[in-house]
Amino acid sequence: MSDPFFQPPSGTDLPRYAGVPSFMRLPYLPPDHPRRGEVEIGIFGLPWDGATSNRPGARHGPRALRDASTMIRERNRATGQEPFRAARIADLGDVAMSPVDQDEALGNAQAFIRGVLGQGIRPFMVGGDHLCTLTVLRELRAARGEPFGLVLLDSHTDLYPPYFGGQTLTHGNPFRQGIEEGCLDPARCVMVGMRGTSYNNADFQYGWDKGVRIVPIEECMELGWTAVMEIARAVVGDGPTYVSFDIDFVDPAYAPGTGTPEVGGPTSFDAIRCVRSLRGLDIIGADLVEVSPPFDTGGITAWLGASVMFELLCAMQK
Amino acid sequence: MSDPFFQPPSGTDLPRYAGVPSFMRLPYLPPDHPRRGEVEIGIFGLPWDGATSNRPGARHGPRALRDASTMIRERNRATGQEPFRAARIADLGDVAMSPVDQDEALGNAQAFIRGVLGQGIRPFMVGGDHLCTLTVLRELRAARGEPFGLVLLDSHTDLYPPYFGGQTLTHGNPFRQGIEEGCLDPARCVMVGMRGTSYNNADFQYGWDKGVRIVPIEECMELGWTAVMEIARAVVGDGPTYVSFDIDFVDPAYAPGTGTPEVGGPTSFDAIRCVRSLRGLDIIGADLVEVSPPFDTGGITAWLGASVMFELLCAMQK
Amino acid sequence: MSDPFFQPPSGTDLPRYAGVPSFMRLPYLPPDHPRRGEVEIGIFGLPWDGATSNRPGARHGPRALRDASTMIRERNRATGQEPFRAARIADLGDVAMSPVDQDEALGNAQAFIRGVLGQGIRPFMVGGDHLCTLTVLRELRAARGEPFGLVLLDSHTDLYPPYFGGQTLTHGNPFRQGIEEGCLDPARCVMVGMRGTSYNNADFQYGWDKGVRIVPIEECMELGWTAVMEIARAVVGDGPTYVSFDIDFVDPAYAPGTGTPEVGGPTSFDAIRCVRSLRGLDIIGADLVEVSPPFDTGGITAWLGASVMFELLCAMQK
Amino acid sequence: MSDPFFQPPSGTDLPRYAGVPSFMRLPYLPPDHPRRGEVEIGIFGLPWDGATSNRPGARHGPRALRDASTMIRERNRATGQEPFRAARIADLGDVAMSPVDQDEALGNAQAFIRGVLGQGIRPFMVGGDHLCTLTVLRELRAARGEPFGLVLLDSHTDLYPPYFGGQTLTHGNPFRQGIEEGCLDPARCVMVGMRGTSYNNADFQYGWDKGVRIVPIEECMELGWTAVMEIARAVVGDGPTYVSFDIDFVDPAYAPGTGTPEVGGPTSFDAIRCVRSLRGLDIIGADLVEVSPPFDTGGITAWLGASVMFELLCAMQK
Amino acid sequence: MSDPFFQPPSGTDLPRYAGVPSFMRLPYLPPDHPRRGEVEIGIFGLPWDGATSNRPGARHGPRALRDASTMIRERNRATGQEPFRAARIADLGDVAMSPVDQDEALGNAQAFIRGVLGQGIRPFMVGGDHLCTLTVLRELRAARGEPFGLVLLDSHTDLYPPYFGGQTLTHGNPFRQGIEEGCLDPARCVMVGMRGTSYNNADFQYGWDKGVRIVPIEECMELGWTAVMEIARAVVGDGPTYVSFDIDFVDPAYAPGTGTPEVGGPTSFDAIRCVRSLRGLDIIGADLVEVSPPFDTGGITAWLGASVMFELLCAMQK
Amino acid sequence: MSDPFFQPPSGTDLPRYAGVPSFMRLPYLPPDHPRRGEVEIGIFGLPWDGATSNRPGARHGPRALRDASTMIRERNRATGQEPFRAARIADLGDVAMSPVDQDEALGNAQAFIRGVLGQGIRPFMVGGDHLCTLTVLRELRAARGEPFGLVLLDSHTDLYPPYFGGQTLTHGNPFRQGIEEGCLDPARCVMVGMRGTSYNNADFQYGWDKGVRIVPIEECMELGWTAVMEIARAVVGDGPTYVSFDIDFVDPAYAPGTGTPEVGGPTSFDAIRCVRSLRGLDIIGADLVEVSPPFDTGGITAWLGASVMFELLCAMQK
């Protein structure tokens, strides 16, 4: 039976626009909260965009997603799931990350995540730019002792070689870095939705050389999303898997509020369906990144992001 | 032959952004106008959002839709119809509805609609929030003496049980109330496009128990819109039918300006096609509701709403 | 010495855009929190706009003001005050107010405020529309047993006679109602900044008849704000006084996000100066109302509102 | 006693956002309306920006100003005037002006205005760009048989020599053209508020040579607005005078929605006060031009424009 | 081997938001530049909307598209093409077109294009409204001595009869005019994507009478885009062909920033795919028109437009 | 006599919205341009916000300011100056600054500025965040061999102690750092316009201890801007002086597009007047920083910024 402490208030009791906005209106449990140890899935924000090569603003993502997520109700109409009853989920707060010091910022994030993992909590990270993902990958690797698989829904591979004359830590490199550092098992990595222009083909070539399965958007549209997600499931199998959702996976008409949009992407229906199809995988952690509120219009990107978060939480249900 | 009095000025004579904006640039005939009795389809606004549980602003809908609808030209490119020639259609004005007194507001609306029906005019209501629909249902029921069918295009069933500790008159309840009050024949009700999160399943269960046919978005996408609309037509048959179009039926990328958007919805092409497929039904009244201009971006929701209104007027052609 | 529990985190430790946003980043103490009894000034939201005659959206005010207020730092540059050290201030949360049932909404608000006053906390209410103020006036009256004075900074008197055929409870009536119900001592009421168009002069006449001092904007501009505020201080004297700040007091160039703006108002500098000049009065409660985020542009209204809140908290320092 | 036919509905009866929006909610009397002959002041739109050298969009001005003007109430709080009781004022509609043919557009406008003047109606024109003013000047000149004075509130003189290799009919030339064509008596012309950058000084020099009194913004700020408007009154005296208000007179913080803003302008309070000080002049016609809705933010420019229109109508009271 | 002079700087060297924005960050070669003669494809702007019947603003299109196009990288992820290596492409600047004198404006544009063609440069025109296309058609016809084919991707045929009482030169007429003037071979013209409302059927009828192949959106959706583009290729064959892309071809959810949007259009993926399928045709010139930045939201229309431009440049590769 | 090469095209020849946008439409002279050595005042962009503690986006400043500055005409209406005739001014382009590596970014900026100074060009820097100023201060110091004076127009002193646990290089520290590094002579530094909240008083205290003259906004308003600027001139005297203008000096109603706005600031008229009063000082360099386009509304901040830039160029006239 579900614990009332971990249930969000209903919008028919407290209107959805009311109250201090935590993620999904769940209880906010900072590090020293006595009940934090009971949490099964912990949502936290990494409000940081210090690795962004183009338009910034993802540092404001967690705030906007907390706000938008208060519109989420308890039940998944499509699947019948009630994720807040199925697991004890909470808002663990944001990490203090210096906007002007990458080392300190990443270090603080990793220390926080280490604490989360140390309490046996499955991490759900809300970015922040995509380099934030690397902090989760590193700590998961450290905690588990071996590499794991990846499902990436994104318009970019983020496998690029160094930027700006040698920078290996930008939001275009986290998965290359994740492979180089041994966090990810490239043979169990699948990347879906790639499109747009590129500097060159070095990222794809790197991925192919390592054995990563890349599914560009043209292949997605040709095969259909059901088939694509079957491929994705086959690649990762039933081993431990991390899921990363970059909001620029979705077409900019649906998600204008992001730093590096690429036209020609999937609809929100397709995006939701992709996430839903991940259910049953052994998801050891997940994230939603690259929502940049200053470039959003009418809050539709944050609302889509909050909806994706809900579906990810459903997919993580055991 | 069509009456020149009821023809809107052409945009090649008077530019579309010019002039006092009535719905579709049609003649504005307030209650005391001598030619009001000639009207066959009367468009009127219920500028009221006093039953809105979430983001308000639908009270500004009729104003924005009048403005946007001046962009509509005379002819339906796809069907060849010219609805303003096929029937005498007019703008009947807005009802004075108190924003702070639900009883008075609904009462005024019903009195106005009673007058419209009394003149033999088919009603086309422009909301306002979805509870406004109930005022039309009630008066149609009173005028006709028996229940009728419903086609609802929406992301919600609006069959929810009472809100906020007992409120039966919110924008989440109109069709439950319409069934309870005997306006609607549940066996001839079909609801298309449901999705998103829900408080629980009580609305679906209520509908199923009563015999309402509910087609969630997943079923729509699987069957295809042509098949779905065939189902819809079969449910209502050739008996008298009301058509209600909630703008949140369409995906928020296409219709951000609404109070309770749900991601993962149809495109504007699909939405238009759904409406177009209703032609030939015995449509005794229709509405377009829940356009909330303060949440619109660039006026695209109002423009889509005006386009849907035009298609509904074509579908109502006898 | 100030209690660390009641200090907001510094923006140089946790960036100001990070974290769950409570008012001024102060601790959030819901009704059952063990330390609530220690609070001296309690900030709470009434997210409700059910009495709004024109453009809605003030129900979203508390959320937007919490967000914007995280930009506030600890110290008042102009006065040297550090209000969070001078008093124990906290965020008490929002009241659950039904958007569709005025009686229930006002009743819930009054019950909440009764609790706040019962704990000896000075109330700082964040609206919501201006009728929300009436709930505070009523409970302060009940708790204190006698009427008190008022400083109103607003572009309207809110002394209007009933609206919409008899409604006495709209956002245009709270102070008339407050006088009628014996909450306010009209001889100790001063209203500053009135301007724009009016239905008639009934509101001014009512105020004059009762002895309220009204200072229209033309008089403000002629006398200068220093002189005006001396008048205001003289009217209320050193008796107990409530301060109400309607954001539409300020010119719409500075505060576009409100329901009923009036052009020709003061600048933000003048507005801040007015608030600052209230220091030393016996302020028994205060509010900031009528911020309507859907009509805001770039968040400047919310940011101004948060700045005004901070100055009000400084003015309330004993 | 005032004629009920010419009274706008009160916002306490019909909410201000409801109804088909005519200027100030006044009766809409197209050219063939039987009661048009009774009108004393006729407001009409020239939805045209075909002479705009920079950012377009003023063609959408009349629509936006009709919408915003429904927020205006009956009474001028500052002066006690009730202009709709003092004179029979109506909305005469918009002129059909081709956006792609300047000759036809100006010709249509002049023919319309000729009709208005022929019915003895004082014209109040709503632009459109500033060249629209020339059509009024020309027809007033033709109808009266002699030149008249001018009060211009603007950030530009609009006395520029031809643009783009010889164009004398752009929105930078109307008053030069008005002087050249003998519509205006330059010795009775005063221009207030000039500022910003200029191509050269040819416009000032032309004005000075003709005897026009130009008051740049620096002089306004130094003398104060009261003194400046006394100068303005002295220049035009009690002879017949036209008043033209370009919304870019006001600072872009107050009026962003215009084609050629200039920073460093007056506040809305000062602008309103300038208009108010014109009362008692023999105003034979007036206009409000250059509101460009596509560049407006949050509708504040349209709202300011509507407020200025109301003050102009009060100033025109005899 | 590609000439370094004609390569844009990489975003990993100079961030994409940095630098003076030329189209695609290519070298800017005004008419007198010594290397202009080497250019193979020349991109230039016609910043003019003087033929716009509805919402203006396309005059700001080239500026916005230069800005957005700096987000484009070197390589087409889908096709592997690197267009800036495959041909020498440059930004030739904008033509000075009077916004108030159609004759002068069109004359200047034609003179400029004549110069471009005289240097053997393939023209890529960036509008501006759709009448701008006529200037390219005329000069191509003059230079080549015979009519050519057309692929039009648009929601309108732009084959309308005269507007506003006889205007043949509006943005609704360029292709009718192009056929009438012998620029286009109607039997080799194909128009894809038509939809929405129309004044009448005169445009379709004109096209059919002349032998133009028109594919309305319903036919597109039924046949699928692959089949439609095969039809398009068959119509134009391997003769010389002009390609015109009106941004209102795409649904307004994807491209809100345009003057005359029509709902129910293709997605950005479909639009990109259509362009891509044109590769191999003998494309003698191309354009992207009708981006109207004042009506854009969040820059998504400009970004889509820049992406379409890139695909067109790829399709033009020989 | 002025050199035609250095004159911007007139808006009456080439409309102001046309053409590739360089600063003020001046010639763009990258480092290797043969005529760069003739430049007297060089405007360049530092598109970088890597030291921003709060809302980012100033990296997009130079792009937006180039665009807005094309609205500037040749002549200063108020002073009669024609700065582009008085000196050879050019756009020197932007510096490539890594958004993810502060050391590299600052190093590149300094190397670029060193080159500019080496060519004897007076630098006009366009930010970017306020730390960008430090790069100019450092290179000016190195080139001149001794400290110089400063006029700062800002709402903050930017004299704060280290942020985020020891960061001395943030946008809150440049002038403290400039003093510590011996670039600035504190006795010849004046800071005008300080206001808002602060973490503590350490910045003021530091300035006072060093002998910096700080004029908070309250003092400005009390003394009047003329008197304040006389104080400022007296502090710097006729020695070499750097002028830095942070756009957040102006009230957010006038300049919403900035990262850390503070309400209660001067109007645009006052701000312009302050800049104008600097004429005659020995200005060795200047900047305009902290314009953040993602937070701008309607481009008014960029337009104000461009206007301030023009006035600064006039003030720099010798």
Automatic annotation (TrEMBL), chains A, B, C, D, E, F:
Keywords: Hydrolase, Manganese, Metal-binding. One of its GO terms (biological process) is putrescine biosynthetic process from arginine, via agmatine. Pfam families: Arginase. It comes from the Bacteria. Binds 2 manganese ions per subunit. Belongs to the arginase family. Agmatinase subfamily. This is Agmatinase. It comes from Roseicyclus persicicus. The lineage of its organism: Bacteria, Pseudomonadati, Pseudomonadota, Alphaproteobacteria, Rhodobacterales.
